[in-house]
Design brief:
By secondary structure, the chain is an alpha/beta fold. Helices cover 30% and strands 16% of the residues. It has two domains: 332 residues, Glycosidases (TIM Barrel, Alpha-Beta Barrel); 79 residues, Immunoglobulin-like (Sandwich), CATH 2.60.40. Strands 5-4-3-2-1-7-6 form a seven-stranded parallel sheet. Strands 8-9-15-11-12 form a five-stranded antiparallel sheet. The longest helix is centred in the middle third of the chain and has 18 residues. It starts with a helix and ends with a strand.
């Protein structure tokens, strides 16, 4: 064999090894390192939007609760407000999105301090927000807005912000005849994933190149039915986003909190302690629903104090926070959602140093003083202590840091503070007397400790 032929052979052997680094097994898929950007990001925005935004009553599971479980409140709501024979599909023309302004959305998301977004491209109802070839006449290009909503948001996001694009996709669909046929066969047939789910997944990855792929809705089917490891092997080996893509753990009924790029475990998951595996707390500003609800009460919405507390606790325990908003059927992010997002951004403008690019410290919360959570920035060897409430005695005790003569304490957004060492360990930090206008922020405060162990 000539030198040139040998070079070509070695090149193709090397190329083959690179292209097939991950095999379609969980052992191999789980060995892939999580792209570094995701752990550094800490905070993202979830967006639940679809045909369920039209009735905007009760939950984004409206169709299932009405037609599947036939819950009395949903049945009564439909009987009272819609004519006999009205079907869920009749809501689709009313999903109009006439006020959807992707640049306005991205401005709000950027102002929140989030580093990535996750848009529901298809929920369990099966309606796709892009003109999918595999969802004929049940997508936002064929009916309703007559627009590719995914493409519009992706373009605005990339043209106007540094936020990363994430796409949510439901594996199953409640009432799709192919899925129901497979379910009746105990998932021994795979018509639905082969004809619908997998083609859609390849379609959105190749077309929109997301950096988060948020899978959901296994329909009680195992990952083998969905060919999840086969798809993920392609995603990690050959897809256009193979180097940066991040995935979650919802790839079959037995995979959640066990397999995948990061764990979500359950909705609104917040363990309160450090986990060995990277995780994400996906939660909602409206405590009762992921989609927009016209029947929501003011008390249903979390306050900014509660949201900041959730962010701090999540990051201190090594997680990311994915905070959800539900737009209206006509494409508006209601003022209350916008206010919460902008408030979070105001807080992060002052305190983000202790959130972004940090890791969990050896103690997650203080062992003596309640309401204090810690993070750690290895590059600067800085400890960050978050005070969720302002003490009324003029000082705060941090029992876990080990101080030295060179220890310095600074309140982010303010200036250095005085402190005294405590025995056997810890320190007492003296807080300044400040008027509300002098406060660096309004909801939770961060102390940065350097020169401490």
């Amino acid at each position: 064999m000539g030198t040139r032929s040998l070079c070509f052979l070695l090149f193709f052997l090397f190329l083959g090894r690179c292209c097939c680094q991950y095999e379609p097994t969980w052992e191999s898929i789980d060995s892939r390192p999580l792209p570094e950007w995701f752990d550094q990001a800490k905070f993202g925005i979830f967006i639940h939007w679809g045909v369920f935004s039209v009735p905007s009553y009760g939950s984004e599971w409206f169709w299932w609760y009405w037609q599947g479980q036939k819950l009395p409140s949903y049945v009564f709501f439909m009987a009272k407000n819609y004519p006999p024979g009205f079907q869920y599909q009749d809501f689709a023309p009313q999903f109009t999105a006439e006020f959807f302004d992707p640049e306005e959305w991205t401005d709000i998301f950027a102002a929140s301090g989030a580093k990535y977004i996750v848009l529901t491209t298809k929920h369990h109802e099966g309606f796709t927000l892009w003109g999918s070839k595999y969802s004929w006449n049940w997508n936002a290009v064929d009916i309703g807005p007559k627009r590719d909503l995914v493409d519009e948001l992706a373009r605005a996001l990339r043209q106007n912000t540094d936020l990363r694009l994430g796409l949510y996709h439901s594996l199953f669909e409640w009432f799709h005849p192919l899925f129901r046929a497979d379910a009746a066969n105990n998932f021994n047939t795979t018509l639905f994933p082969q004809e619908k789910t997998l083609p859609e997944l390849y379609e959105i990855v190749n077309k929109y190149k997301p950096e988060v792929l948020w899978s959901d809705g296994d329909g009680d089917a195992p990952d083998k039915y969905w060919n999840s490891t086969g798809f993920l092997a392609w995603l990690y080996n050959e897809s256009p986003v193979r180097d940066t893509i991040v995935t979650n753990d919802r790839w079959g009924k037995d995979s959640i909190c066990k397999h995948g790029g990061y764990y979500t475990c359950t909705d609104r998951y917040n363990p309160g302690h450090l986990l060995k595996h990277k995780w994400e707390n996906c939660m909602t500003i409206d405590q009762r629903s992921w989609g927009f609800r016209r029947d929501a009460k003011f008390s249903d919405y979390l306050t900014i104090e509660q949201l900041v507390k959730t962010l701090v606790e999540t990051v201190s325990c090594g997680g990311n926070l994915l905070m959800n908003v539900g737009p209206t059927h006509d494409g508006r992010i209601i003022p209350l959602f916008e206010e919460r997002l902008r408030q979070m951004g105001q807080w992060l403008n002052v305190n983000g140093e202790g959130i972004y690019n940090t890791t969990a410290w050896r103690a997650q919360n203080d062992s003596v003083t309640p309401g204090i959570w810690y993070t750690w920035r290895p590059q600067e060897k800085a400890i960050y202590a978050f005070l969720l409430s302002w003490p009324n005695n003029g000082y705060v005790v941090l029992s876990d840091p080990i101080v030295s003569d060179s220890t310095q304490v600074v309140m982010l957004g303010y200036k250095p503070l005085k402190w005294d060492p405590l025995k056997p360990s810890g320190l007492q930090v003296y807080l300044p007397t400040l008027s509300p206008v002098e406060m660096p922020c309004s909801w939770a405060w961060t102390l940065r400790l350097t020169g401490a162990a």
